[in-house]
Amino acid sequence: MRYLLGTFFPRSLKLRLMAAAAVWVLPVLALAGILLLWAFRTHLESQLDDQLAAYQRELLAAASIDAEGELVLAYIPADPRFSQVFSGWYWQAAVAGKVVRQSTSAGPGGTGGLQLLSDTQGIVELNGPGSRELRIYRRDVNLPGAKGGVSVLIAAPCDELEADMAQFTRHTIVIFTTLGLVFMVAVYLQVGFGLHPLTTLRREIAAIRNGRAERLTASVPAEVAPVVDEVNALIDHNRQLIERARNEAGNLAHALKNPLSIISHEIASLEPERREVLEVQLQSVRGQVERILQRIRAAGPSAAGHARVDVSDLVDDLGFSLRTIYRDRQIDLSFEIDEGAAFAGDRGDLVEILGNLCDNACKWARARVTVRAGRRDGRLAVAIEDDGPGIAPEARAAAMARGQRLDERMPGSGLGLDIVREIVALYRGRLSLGDSSLGGLKVELDLPAA
């Protein structure tokens, strides 16, 4: 059964529980229905047999033997079915195996017109006139003065019993089918009620991921409580790891700053040929160190459960910094942020993403940079456009490669887009380059929204 449940319902716990209930409920209902039909048929047969026995006792009470030794009936059963020809209800009285009296329903043959319908004492089912199946009750007795054994026989049609049985069977099927459906609905509701704590748990985990909560706080049954404790412990552990990594990144940056500065100063005093070679290597080291530090500082979604970053709050500081840096060029930097636009992640990660992209846009823009952000289909959509020279479609893939610089005249290490791409990938987002309506480059981001 476990194999069947795992095959047909591999991903639905609710369907598995319902299937497990159906595996034993439906056979039990079917068995109960069969037993009920058997009990009802037994009751119908017993009731019919009692009726046949009553008519038989009535005939025996009316039977006597006259002076010539002939069987005489003082009266006969008054049931009109014994008077209707071939009704299926018959009675016969026989002496020494020869029918001497019978019901009018047996036909116009008169005395002796029919043979005894049954040769067996007791209750049997045999075919009678017209090949109609009959239930026959025969009893043999000895009466004083009789020329042989006296037999009294009562017969009733089986089709009446079968008709009652068929009607009861139809009603039973309808009732038990309805009962089965009602039971399965009840099981569905019961399973839903039992699994409701998991739904609550899922909503709380989603709230953590979207930045609306920091820990799981749901009141759950004792069976689920250990899972809640373990998840909370995992969240705390991840936060500690991220915090420690960031602290180490800061320590490393400070530890490397002075040695690199000293090396750079010493290189400046060397001969031009040697200085050029060492400066290239030093720049490479600085680029690699910066790249590693940037990656360490990227928290990623595992540490972002407690964060909800309002984009409008972040771009105020970003805009101030960029306008200060590029004040000599008088870049028209505008932000169009929809109300409620928020990032489900770490603030530092979003600063890293937008800072790099907006800085690149300002570097290459002639006079204008536009940043738009809003919620689209449950995600955070960001578009950064400039009126600069743009990037040719065939060169866009290379622009996001590690350390790739398409124009050496601009300052920088060439790590910006590559770092942004890696951080976006951590959040299972999307980064794409396209043509801007301003005439330059358009960078589009798809990120998780809070």
Write up what this structure looks like.
It is a single chain. With 450 residues, this protein is an alpha+beta fold. The protein has three domains: 1-202, no CATH class; 210-297, Orthogonal Bundle (Helix Hairpins), CATH 1.10.287; 307-448, Heat Shock Protein 90. Helix content is 50%, strand content 18%. It contains nine helices and 14 strands. The strands form four sheets. The protein has a five-stranded antiparallel beta sheet with strand order 4-3-7-6-5. Helix 4 runs antiparallel to helix 5. The chain is rod-shaped. The model is unreliable at 405-414 (pLDDT under 50).
Offer a quick outline of the entry.
By secondary structure, the protein is α+β, with helices and mostly antiparallel strands.
Provide key terms for this protein.
alpha+beta, Helix Hairpins, single chain, 450 residues, Heat Shock Protein 90, 14 strands, 5-stranded antiparallel β-sheet
Strand content: 15-25%
Distance between the termini: 43 Å
How are helices and strands ordered from N to C?
Answer: HHEEEEEEEHHHEHEEHEEHHEE
Number of helices: 9
For this structure, the quaternary state is single chain
Largest sheet: 5 strands, antiparallel
Overall, the morphology is: rod-shaped
Q: On the 0-100 scale, what is the average pLDDT?
A: 82
Overall number of structural domains: 3
Low-pLDDT segments: 405-414
Query: How many E-type strands?
Result: 14
Strand arrangement in the largest pleated sheet? 4-3-7-6-5
